[in-house]
Specification:
Shape: globular
Distance between the termini: 15 Å
Structural class: alpha/beta
Number of helices: 9
Strand order of the largest sheet: 7-6-5-4-3-2-1-8
Radius of gyration: 17 Å
Number of strands: 8
Length: 220
């Protein structure tokens, strides 16, 4: 059975190949290793193999394992990739370096308040619900450009990019294309899209980061 480090190297190799096939510059796509549900002991070998960017879904879970790891490995960049509740904004700003799930006015307002209070400025992405799925977080694609602008002008937030999670039973390509189009219209440079099953497709559509969990750490 392959271990996480072996799988990490395989994913990196496939990212490099996908970059080349898409005519992208080598290293254009960042790998976010999604470590949700895995304990520090399972994550450590991946860090020791050189991975420095990780993603977590829940603030509370991340608080239980990442402060000590970030203290030990100072170059770690931690992304929040799961839905953020407004009552967790304080903890999220304190712990995460990137928050990818800004999707409504209340969250934008709370983040702006906490960032000012704490003097921390995590980088921010707006999550877009490209499939308009009722059960899924994210802003309506039709409201995305206006929301990004309000984040800037009303809340003083610098939005770095957009993020999406396409419906699992649909071709992800049109969703990635839509996100790329919205990013151009909103004037943001970063695209967080693509997971274990479709990250190579996302790279072909312009992803600047891919969020890969089970292809590295194994099934949860």
């Amino acid at each position: 059975m392959q271990d996480a480090v072996t799988r990490l190297h395989e994913v990196r190799s496939r990212i490099a190949k996908a970059e080349s096939q898409a005519g992208r510059e080598a290293g254009a796509v960042a790998l976010v290793a999604v470590s949700k549900t895995f304990e520090a002991d399972a994550i450590r070998p991946v860090i020791e193999a050189g991975q420095r960017v990780f993603g977590e879904n829940r603030v509370q879970e991340a608080q239980g394992k990442w402060p000590a790891l970030k203290e030990e490995f100072r170059e770690i960049e931690l992304h929040l990739i799961g839905p953020l509740q407004s009552n967790k904004a304080k903890e999220a700003v304190a712990l995460f370096d990137v928050i990818e799930t800004v999707d409504r006015e209340k969250i934008a307002k709370e983040l702006a308040k906490e960032m000012k209070k704490q003097g921390r400025t995590p980088r921010l992405y707006v999550q877009v619900n490209t499939g308009l799925e009722e059960q899924k977080a994210g802003i309506d694609p039709r409201e995305t450009v206006g929301f990004v602008e309000r984040c800037r002008t009303e809340h003083g937030l610098r939005i770095e990019g957009l993020m999406c999670i396409p419906p699992f039973d649909e071709n992800p390509g049109p969703h990635f294309a839509l996100l790329e189009k919205l990013a151009r219209e909103a004037g943001v440079a970063k695209l967080s899209m693509g997971m274990s099953g479709d990250y190579e497709t996302a790279i072909a559509f312009g992803a600047t980061s891919v969020r890969v969990g089970s292809a590295i750490f194994g099934e949860r």
